[in-house]
Amino acid sequence: MACYLTTGKHMSIYWSVLTVLTLLAITAPAALAFGFAGASAARSRIAPLSWLGRGYIAIVRGVPDIAFFLFFVIALDQMIEYARHRMLCPDWSEPIRQGNDFVVCAAAKMPLGTAPQWVHETYGFFTAVLTFAIVFGAFAANVLYGAMRAVPRAQLETAEAYGMSPRQTFRRVLVPQMWVYALPGLSNLWMVLIKATPLLFLLGVEDIVYWARELGGSKTPRFTDYPHGDWRMWYFLALLVFYLAFTRLSEVVLDRVMKRLTKGQATTGGEAQRKAA
Amino acid sequence: MSCLQTIADYGLRAIGIGERLLPRDDFTLCQQFTLIGSGMVWNVYFGVLALVFGFCLATLVAVGKASPRAAFRKPSEWFIFVFRGSPLFIQFFFAYFLFLNLKGVYPVFSPFTAAWLGALIVLFLNTAAYSAEIFYGALQSIPKGEVEAADAYGLSGWSRFRRIVWPTMLRLAWPAYTNEAIFLFHATTLVFFSGFPAWQQRGDALYYARYFADKTFNPFIPYPILAMYFILLTLVIIGLFGLVNSRLNRHLPANTRQRLKVRPNLIR
């Protein structure tokens, strides 16, 4: 059994677990950055910027998310290739959309056709990360926008009364205080993000779903030392348990963070903490 | 070929009526609209049935979770945790292979490996768990005074639940439940992406949208069409649930009524 679980292919599934964790580790801050930018833009007093922020938040909501995932990856890929095409091959005369085909010159291919395999894989992974960041960024923007509006008005007025400029008010008063209002929404988002990671499979990254299907399928003695029947059910059961454990862990950690953040805040949670102490 | 002809050929393609072969080349806008629209039949089918059955189970589970008896509470808590804590995508895969294995042992299970039943069961259990959590939250926030008033009138047990607790629970839970419903419809697009095969290319809307995107390498047409259909569907759901909401709130003065706040969710 121990031998079976450490075959070369099984090592790849462990690596893909790491891929998922890396994805989470990169996407979460990236989505938060997108969200922060979106929310600040939506609050902006400059009308076009505000429309941009609001539009970004509005478009991503209300459409099934996987449609977005499928759409964004191809769209991003084509956008990058199109931009490179315009820059690198100025004397290309044929149209890019030839009927059903999307044709760019060889130099504009992304990644280059001659690049080694790992570059292709990394590129695929990063388009996936960017897609996740854009989609989740919109939801994070929505949460943060709400949180910014939840900060008591009196706090901002006090800051203004002290002579702070709008920018100073934003940075010194609004942003430090909004997190406690944003955290419930953000932790919810984190849970959703965890549960969205299997969608990497749809984006063509060889993730745990891919390997679970691959390894679980029936094996004949001809190709492997460890022949077995259709074990995919057990592999997916293992994935199910992995995700359950991961969500449970996050719940516990986020609870702690919430406790820390509510400390000293003028909310019911903070008040309850003060009374208990 | 005129557009009407296309609609006649492909309008019900998703349930196997009409032309057998999908269009291969020279895709017209009309074809894309028709086929993606015909796929919506499946989304509506999964969504409506899972919602109706899920509602009943969710009420039971919510009451179970609120029960003081551990024998009822523990199973409900676990049910909710398992279905809310893991990705729906993995649940689909697991269920499909589970049914596949069972089918090998007992032939009775062969319909379960088809999407129309197997996926429906997964969606049903999943939405039941999510709705149960919503209902449980509502059950916890029923005003104390209402229950005390019911006690004072001598209502107890079933009649108290039926006349006081349950309507109030629904009223409080309804805005969140509307979101859950919208979300469930969005989640139906996952069915044909997981293990469940689309038999004879009878898939849902996203299945056809992806078919076109794969064939044309142009995501800018099929996915916006899909988005349009889903926005329409979402608006219909909001309308219907809004009607129920106003009926649930009809006894309240206008200014204390809860308004529906639509906040579509994401992937589960």
Number of helices of chain B: 9
Helix coverage percent of chain A: over 70%
Q: Please estimate the helix content of chain B.
A: 55-70%
End-to-end separation of chain B = 42 Å
Give the end-to-end Cα distance of chain A, rounded to a whole number of Å. Answer: 52 Å
Order of helices and strands of chain A: HHHHEEHHHHHH
Write down the overall mean pLDDT of chain B: 84
Oligomer: heterodimer
| Number of DSSP E strands of chain A | 2
Please write the string of helix (H) and strand (E) elements of chain B. Answer: HHHHHHHHH
- Largest sheet properties of chain B: none
Notable characteristics:
heterodimer; A: 277 residues; mainly alpha; two-stranded antiparallel ribbon; 2 strands; 73% helix; flat; B: 268 residues
Overview of this protein structure:
- The complex is a heterodimer of chains A (277) and B (268).
- Chain A has 277 residues and is mainly α.
- In chain A, 73% of the residues lie in helices and 1% in strands.
- Chain A has ten helices and two strands.
- In chain A, strands 1-2 form a two-stranded antiparallel sheet.
- In chain A, helix 8 runs antiparallel to helix 9.
- Chain B has 268 residues and is an all-alpha fold.
- In chain B, helix 5 (115-140) crosses helix 7 (157-187).
- At the A-B interface, helix 4, strand 2, helix 5, helix 7 and helix 8 of A face helix 3, helix 4, helix 8 and helix 9 of B.
